[in-house]
Amino acid sequence: MAVQAQVRYLNEEWRHRHDIPQIGDRESRRANTSKHVVSIHDARPQLERGEIDLDANGFALLRHASAVQDFQDDAEVKAVYYPEIVALAKRATGAVQVFVNQHVIRTEDKTDFNKAYARFLHCDYSLEDARAAASRILDKQGLAAADYDDMDFAWYNAWQPFDNVVLRNPLALVDAASLAMNDIVDYQYTGYSQASQDAVQGKSSMPARNPAHRFYYVSRMSPEEVLFFKQLDTRRRGGACPHTSFDDPTSPPDAPPRRSIETRLMAVFRKAA
Q1: Average pLDDT over every residue of 186-206
Q2: Per residue in 65-95, is it b (16+ CB within 10 Å) or e — as a string?
Q3: Containing structural domain, residue 219
Q4: pTM to 2 decimals?
Q5: In degrees to the nearest 10, what's the CA dihedral of 183, 187, 191, 196?
Q6: Angle at the Cα of 209 (from 33 to 252), degrees rounded to 5?
Q7: How many domains does the chain have?
């Protein structure tokens, strides 16, 4: 089953320019992206049949009932949720270490661009230099990148609703197996204050339109489910899942607003012999 919905792609012009777009508010998003109608398939039946694979397609659906009482309490999230999601990521990937980079709470509140639903297709990192991205995160952890020269790295997002089953504004993502590297363009996210501790160094990336992209979402996600998807991997070039919120035309008009936590993780793997 699929729904027809609009998603915002990067404008085609940026595929051929030497400079890169800057996006950090609603005005710059509108200026640099365009809406396109796509078919977004419900992945739940295929996930239940084992037809979608984390390595091949870039995403998986995991079960996780968190002990967090208030997801809008940063201290509780860091003390309780971070260790939970690290353990979940290790089980899902076989990683020997997992580091949490940051988390983002998304709600119906539109007053903060960083906390409102993300309404354009994007990845959270540039796909061009994975090892440089790893070095930055290791440095943030107080670790020496040279000690990890014999390791591989992959970045994942763990996306989990809270308070309600998701009936409005679900998350759509592009199947990594349908994404060509030349569809992806770097952009600079400018929405964080330079003084913010959450400021992201370097570039992110987003796709220009390609009709070959396959879109998925997971219907009626519960607060005990996690959509776990890849953003970057040193073991292969590509393999990312661009993602965006979308307006589901089948949502009940009186459905409660979607509330979710997205946790960004870097997993460390021993290199294959």
Answers
A1: 70
A2: ebebeebeeeeebeebbbebbbebbbebbeb
A3: 2-270
A4: 0.94
A5: 120
A6: 70
A7: 1
